[in-house]
Design brief:
Blueprint: E1 5-11, H1 15-26, E2 34-40, H2 47-53, E3 57-60, H3 67-77, E4 82-86, E5 90-92, H4 96-106, E6 112-117, H5 126-139, E7 145-146, E8 153-157, H6 158-164, H7 177-187, E9 192-202, H8 208-228, H9 242-267, H10 277-288, H11 290-331
Parallel strand pairs: 1-2, 1-4, 2-3, 6-9
Antiparallel strand pairs: 4-8, 5-9, 6-8, 7-9
């Protein structure tokens, strides 16, 4: 008898988190009706051994080809007509599998669905907590239907996956291949649901450097995709809300005016911007983020908020840089996938 659901986990050097990911899956209500497939993307650690020890199917790539290729290989070998893609650093919580299976059974007109991170990261360092809260908060601003897909916790019917042709394997590593997949589904009239009742703990540990690099790459690729593949006027992502648009402009102007202020001080020349400009821009940025800050303070208190606000500003400065580079990449005719990590 074919399984109801095929869970596909792309994994690259995931030994630190894969065991918890698989244990959480196998403990879920409804796990007996699922097959679990780990696709080891040529890891140099014990990823494959951990998968085999857990008693799940493990496919090994001969070379590291990225998350898109790993997901596609897992889907091609899957037996079910419904796929659930879960990242190797995500541990599903509560009754996620049961809720997902019930939803697809009740809503045959829906082709795909995405879950969400649990609000609080299991990691307790400031960068991991902040990034997790930022992702959770903005995903939760989305409506009941969306146009994006999320590889971390994302389910799709086999027929829809085949119609799109799977994930675009030209993306290197784990990039924006899932976002493009969602846009391609939407362009074909396929409907995607956002499910708050399919949460998972994000087990990834972010350093400041890895967090900012992640934000930069997503901004470059997201800008290209948003301007070339998204249908106008439909199901905006929670990240693209008006407050973030204001914050993005304010952060960019703050960076320019503060840099001009510093250069003027060093060269003892009159700055192009008035002296109050950086602080005015900073005030606008903080005002735009007031609801997010209130959300953080309610959950973690003001001591954490004092750490999160500088991270928020730094992250937005990096996102501004990524947005600009994405626009330059489009103007230069660079492909969506981008051979250069900068464009």
């Amino acid at each position: 008898m074919a399984p109801e659901l095929s869970v596909i986990i792309p994994a690259f050097n995931a030994a630190e988190t894969l065991g918890r990911c698989l244990a959480a899956l196998q403990e879920q209500e409804g796990a007996a009706a699922c097959e679990i497939i780990v696709v080891d993307d040529a890891s140099a650690d014990a990823t494959a051994a951990i998968a085999r020890a857990a008693g799940v199917a493990c496919l090994c790539q001969e070379s590291n080809r990225g998350a898109a290729a790993a997901r596609n290989r897992g889907a091609r070998s899957a037996s079910a007509d419904l796929f659930l893609f879960v990242d190797a650093d995500v541990a599903l919580k509560d009754h996620s599998l049961r809720n997902l299976l019930r939803f697809f059974e009740q809503r045959p007109e829906i082709s795909a669905a995405v879950g969400t991170y649990a609000a609080l990261s299991p990691r307790r360092d400031a960068c991991s907590l902040y990034h997790n809260f930022f992702t959770y908060y903005h995903h939760d601003l989305s409506g009941e239907e969306v146009e994006w897909f999320w590889g971390a916790i994302g389910a799709v019917r086999r027929s829809a996956w085949e119609e799109v042709g799977g994930f675009d394997e030209r993306y290197a590593g784990a990039a924006a291949e899932d976002m493009q997949f969602g846009y391609e589904l939407a362009l074909r009239g396929r409907r995607i649901a956002y499910r708050r009742d399919v949460p998972g703990d994000h087990l990834h540990r972010f350093s400041l450097r890895s967090m900012l690099w992640n934000d930069y790459r997503k901004a470059v690729l997201g800008t290209k995709l948003y301007l070339t593949r998204k249908q106008p006027g439909r199901h905006h992502h929670g990240f693209s809300n008006p407050a973030n648009a204001v914050a993005l402009v304010a952060a960019g102007l703050f960076g320019l005016s503060f840099l001009g202020f510093l250069l003027g001080m060093v060269n003892r020349q009159e700055c192009l911007f008035p002296a109050f400009a950086p602080w005015l821009c900073l005030a606008v940025f903080l005002l735009a983020g007031r609801r997010f800050y209130s959300f953080l303070a309610e959950r973690m208190g003001f001591f954490f908020l004092a750490q999160a606000v500088p991270l928020h500003l730094l992250s937005f400065l990096i996102i501004v840089a990524g947005t600009v580079m994405g626009l330059i990449g489009l103007a230069l005719g660079r492909p969506l996938q981008g051979k250069s990590p900068w464009l």
